[in-house]
Specification:
This protein folds into 2 domains: about 220 residues, Up-down Bundle (Growth Hormone, Chain: A); about 140 residues, no CATH class. α2 packs across α3, α4 packs antiparallel against α5 and α4 packs antiparallel against α8. The two termini are about 25 Å apart. The chain is about 65% helix and about 0% strand. With about 425 residues, it is mostly helical.
């Protein structure tokens, strides 16, 4: 069935991505400028995540129940713009905290609805390409937003005579971009005639992702509903242990980024534009290496790659402290900080790809939707059954162009699995 509606509503994510990039590192800096301590800045940084997790479940359930997508997309875009505007006029920490809660609650509405809308307005064969396009749009927008933040925080204080005033103005710019996304979505988006049940979709969202200090993804397809989780498939013990480790790992990453901009300002003496430049180094490195990371993981294995990348990241974070304690000139500190954070971005890409392959291998056939929400995947991944252990006798999954396929494992092809790379062919969009 042809479900392509000819619209380009997904380009409305571009202004939203620019707004996110321009204000992501600004939030802790502005909280600190309002007189907040490291503790209160950490609470502010967690506010969005605290509000967004239950909000995802609420908005996703309402979208599925009422079979409406456009209205929730508008709530997410317009709500984010309103929340950024509220941040701009905040005069106290309490007001700023409530504004971040509002951003997490309203901004979460577009995630579950937008991903399903993407599928309902296109052919199934086009889903991987559409998801890849939205990933590129989000990544470009995020880096463009960071660049906008650098430029504005350089010229803004001179125009407005105060750094805090320039920060407020940047929030207003972000709010305008969020409202622009809502306007574009209103003009370009139509409710689809065909509906897709997210529970029946086994699409691996394998595309590059931007690391954020707050939990507010642009796309989300599957989510756990605490009201009916017991009805779902039980994940294997090995996978459950791994997901707990991922929870701890990313909890540590998020905790670090909660105070990272303040640390750069206090210990390194960096200004706000330089802090944004440090963030650009990580994001740009991640985007640049994603096309190559798949081959690296294929040749070295998913477990070892994720282990070494996680250890490398855990060592790079304390390196910032050592550099801050050293008696170095300003330019050297800035250059080293940019180089270290670029390494952090490289580790982020390795962790995402290796973790995605590991989870896809550990997840049972009927439990992939449960596991997919925790990890991200690389485009064009195919899992080669010849690399599977001899004891496996169940169907082995493949991901081709982002969509899961099944084929029976032939024991005759398992003569020497060690001769093959752990997950075989990484060629992008290879036809089979």
């Amino acid at each position: 069935m042809d479900r392509t509606d000819g619209s380009h509503w997904f380009y409305s994510y571009l202004p939203q991505g620019v707004a996110g990039g321009a204000t992501s590192a600004l939030i802790p800096l502005f909280a600190y400028a309002l007189g907040g301590t490291l503790f209160t800045v950490g609470i502010i940084a967690a506010a969005t995540s605290l509000a967004s997790v239950p909000a995802f479940i609420l908005w996703g359930s309402l979208s599925d129940r009422f079979a409406r997508r456009k209205v929730f997309l508008l709530i997410g875009f317009l709500g984010s713009g309103i929340a950024l505007l509220a941040m701009a006029v905040s005069g106290t920490m309490s007001q700023f905290y409530l504004s971040n809660l509002l951003a997490g609650f309203l901004g979460a509405a577009s995630g579950p609805a937008g991903t399903v809308l993407l599928m309902e307005t296109s052919k199934q064969s086009e889903w991987p390409a559409r998801l890849a396009l939205v990933s590129r749009i989000a990544a470009i927008g995020w880096v463009a937003g960071l660049t906008l933040g650098v430029a504005w925080l350089v010229i803004g204080p001179g125009l407005l005579a105060a750094e805090v005033s320039s920060m407020r103005a940047l929030f207003v710019i972000g709010a305008a971009l969020g409202l622009l996304s809502g306007l574009l979505a209103q003009v370009w988006t139509r409710e689809p005639a065909v509906r897709v049940d997210r529970r029946e979709v086994h699409v691996a969202d394998v595309h590059a992702r931007i690391e954020r200090g707050r939990y507010l993804p642009i796309r989300i397809l599957h989510f756990f509903n605490p009201l009916d989780w017991r009805k779902k498939v039980r994940l294997p013990r090995t996978l459950r242990i791994y997901l707990v480790c991922v929870f701890l790992l990313f909890g540590g990453f998020t905790a670090f980024y909660g105070f990272f901009p303040i640390f750069l300002k206090q210990s390194y003496g960096l200004g706000s534009p330089e802090i944004f430049a440090v963030y650009i180094a990580s994001q740009a490195t991640s985007i640049a290496v994603y096309p190559r990371v798949g081959r690296w993981v294929s040749s070295r294995g998913d477990r070892s790659t994720q282990l070494y990348a996680s250890l490398g990241r855990s060592m790079l974070f304390p390196s910032f402290l050592l550099v801050g304690m050293a008696a170095l000139p300003y330019g050297a500190r800035l250059g080293i900080a940019i180089a270290i954070h670029a390494g952090v971005g490289l580790c982020w890409a390795l962790i995402n790809v290796a973790g995605s392959i590991l989870v896809s291998r550990l997840a049972p056939e009927n439990g992939r939707a449960e596991a997919f929400r925790h990890v991200q995947r690389r485009p064009g991944l195919r899992i080669d059954p010849r690399a599977a252990p001899r004891r496996i006798r169940r169907p082995v999954p493949r991901v081709r162009d982002g969509i899961w396929h099944e084929r029976r494992l032939d024991p005759r092809r398992l003569r020497d699995p060690c001769r093959n790379a752990p997950f075989g062919d990484w060629s992008s969009r290879r036809k089979t």
